[in-house]
Amino acid sequence: MKGKLIVVSAPSGAGKTTIVRRVLQAGLKVAFSVSACSRSPRPGESEGKDYYFMPADVFKRKIENNEFLEWEEVYRGQFYGTLRSEIDRIWSEGYHVIFDVDVKGGLNIKRFYPELTLALFIMPPSVKVLEERLRKRDTESETDIKKRIKKATAEIAFAGQFDRVVINDDLDRAVDETVTLIKDFIKNESKAR
Questions:
Q1: DSSP character for 137?
Q2: What is the pLDDT along the chain (193 residues), one digit of tens a residue?
Q3: What are the CA-CA distances from residue 81 to residues 1, 39, 87, 98 (Å)?
Q4: Most buried of the four, 58, 71, 99, 179, by CB within 10 Å?
């Protein structure tokens, strides 16, 4: 069975991961697509649950073997991507796939499966709030925070290319809106957006 694809993208710190986690608890027939990345795990992250962690040379070899649906060198030497085998695994289990991916990756998935994909952009209330959230995480250096803010500003410009924009100024409201959009999309069997 080919299910549907729900892409949730946002600048780093906008709340997409938190929203996706809450959507997964909402009783929908969706399963999380675990992305692959070439960075080291952050504290609390685990292999196969948060990401498939692999060295950059292994990641590049999988690119050469066309094993990714989409991939990006998000930061110099840091690769992220969606393995084709991950989507096939989820579909074979009878679920729709939900992705927590960066903006370019989300748009690439939408281009590859335009009729099957609902692309949602999680918008932070402002870049200032985004910076505060990144600082509160306390997982990145000052240099990394500045790099993420610069990237976030550029990513926000792509919001109009997504099917819907969800403003995350209130987490519960943003989760409710996201769940409703996904339910409606899954119910619409005749044609994806």
A1: H
A2: 689 999 999 987 788 999 999 999 999 999 999 999 999 999 999 999 989 999 999 999 999 999 999 998 977 889 999 999 999 999 999 999 999 988 988 999 999 999 999 999 999 888 888 788 778 877 778 888 888 888 888 899 999 999 999 999 999 999 999 999 999 999 986 444 3
A3: 23, 12, 12, 14
A4: 99
The sheet that has 78-83: what strands, in order across it? 51-53, 35-37, 78-83, 68-75
Q: Please state, as a whole number, how many other Cβ atoms lie within 10 Å of the Cβ of residue 49.
A: 9
3-state secondary structure (DSSP) of residue 5: strand
- For the chain, the 3-state helix, strand and coil shares in percent, each to the nearest 5, are 45, 25, 35
| CATH node for 5-187 | 3.40.50.300
Query: Rounded distance, CA 36 to CA 81, Å?
Result: 5
If we measure between CA atoms, which residue out of 188, 189, 166, 182 comes closest to residue 30?
182
Tokens representing 187?
């119910």
Residue with tokens 């209130």: 170
Tell me how crowded residue 171 is: count the other CB atoms within 10 A of its CB.
Answer: 12
